[in-house]
Specification:
Layout (H helix, E strand, L loop, with lengths): L7 H23 L2 H16 L7 H17 L5 H14 L5 E7 L7 E8 L4 E4 L1 H4 L3 E6 L6
Length: 146
């Protein structure tokens, strides 16, 4: 009965997120990461095209879709969720960036985390709770060409 409180667009985005997250988990489990990274970039560029917008409401819709997909795929950790946010952002016409970082801590000898931000102000979309204590090592921006 909760679904009747969802807007139709949110429900469709959440359904798409569940399917894309399953595909991302399979790709990350079976393919080398550079292949997955190039594939996600190509999908994002194809979905978004030239129509990019910066809107807090769309950013929030992406965040909700990722959280809902994460409830279905409970064992999906931060990297698949961050990549999912990247794809869902492209689907709604937003440019998002994934950061992968590491931290050294007394509690755990080594830790890694992935999170997604929305340029130009680097507003946090997914994975923000742990992002502050991590040193970014890799940035995935499918719309930035070197």
């Amino acid at each position: 009965m909760r679904s009747e409180h969802w807007r139709r667009g949110d429900l469709l985005l959440a359904g798409a997120a569940i399917i894309v997250l399953a595909c991302l988990r399979l790709a990350l489990a079976t393919l080398p990461f550079p292949v997955v990274r190039r594939g996600v970039g190509a999908v994002c560029r194809a979905l978004c095209g030239r129509r990019m917008v910066e809107a807090a409401s769309r950013r929030e819709a992406v965040r909700r879709a990722v959280l809902r997909a994460g409830r279905v795929h409970r064992s999906a950790f931060c990297l698949p969720r961050a990549l999912l946010a990247l794809v869902m952002g492209a689907l709604v016409g937003m440019r998002l960036v994934v950061h992968v970082g590491v931290h050294l801590d007394r509690d755990e000898p080594f830790g890694a985390h992935a999170w997604t931000t929305a340029p130009p102000d680097d507003a946090m979309v997914v994975g923000g709770r742990e992002a502050g204590r991590n040193q970014p090592l890799l940035t995935i921006d499918p719309f930035h060409y070197n």
